[in-house]
Amino acid sequence: MNRFFVDCELVVGGVLTLPDDVAHHWGKVLRARVGDNAVLFNGRGGEYAATLTHIDKKSAQVTIDDHNPSNKDAPFKLTLGQVMSRGERMDYAIQKAIEMGVHQIQLLTSEHCQEHLKYERDKKKLTHWQAVAIAACEQCGLNIVPQILPPIDVRDWVAECTSALKLIMAVSNGNYLPTNLPQDIALLVGPEGGLSQDEINLAISHGFHAWTIGERVLRTETAPVVALSALQTIWALSR
Q1: Helices and strands (H, E) in the chain, number of each type
Q2: Total-model pTM
Q3: Which residues pair with 16 in a beta bridge?
Q4: Arithmetic mean of pLDDT over the chain
């Protein structure tokens, strides 16, 4: 079943003219025909079954048939503090973290950060990464789109973070084993070059626990996927 994000109100029994990008993708790329079905979601909760009732070269319309209130989100709220990396690595980190159920992603800069957004580029990059998040939700079934928060310095974030459990994966000697996970978790992932020792010390001084999964050093885009998988497994086993 095709899934599409639409940033508009959805009401069961209503008729909706699809946004141009959705109409183009469903109609032109996927060659939809009248009577075909899809799932629509708007990020405000649940998903809606829809039937295509009209399509031409300029527009497409659907009827909204049913509402499923499930959001398919993770059993706990996890905020990922991700130091930015360049190119496709950052896209991959965002995409896979969302597939694993992250609640929101706080972009970070650090001493060894490879990507420092400049004012004139901020909006384009953030718009692109939010689009990556939406596409990931369309693919994986998540109905609440995680927000990609504008970058701040890692020092500011660790000082302001108030999550019940705070984990840092950017160290090689972490030995903390999280058990009985709370509902609110923060996870800090450093850049390719790692966090500086001062940044690590500051995070730990603000209540972050050093956590390493296995003996191998994970890439910055791989770490959140592994960590989220482990945390969901720990949650399931502790319940």
Answers
A1: 6, 11
A2: 0.89
A3: 62
A4: 90
DSSP 107: E
Asked if 78 and 187 touch (Cβ cutoff 8 Å), the reply is: yes
CB contact set of 71 (below 8 Å; sequence gap of 6+): 45, 46, 142, 143, 144
Q: Measured between alpha carbons, how far is 135 from 36 in angstroms, rounded to an integer?
A: 21
| Residue 206 token pair | 């603000």
What are the pLDDT digits (tens) for 162-203? 999 999 986 666 777 777 889 999 999 988 888 899 999 999
- C-alpha closest to that of 175 among 153, 196, 204: 204
pLDDT at 121 over 80: no
Cα(231)–Cα(218) distance, integer angstroms:
16
Which ranges in the chain belong to alpha helices (H)? 20-24, 88-99, 119-140, 154-160, 197-205, 223-238
| Sheet with 147-153, side-by-side order of all strands | 147-153, 104-109, 77-83, 184-189, 165-168, 209-210
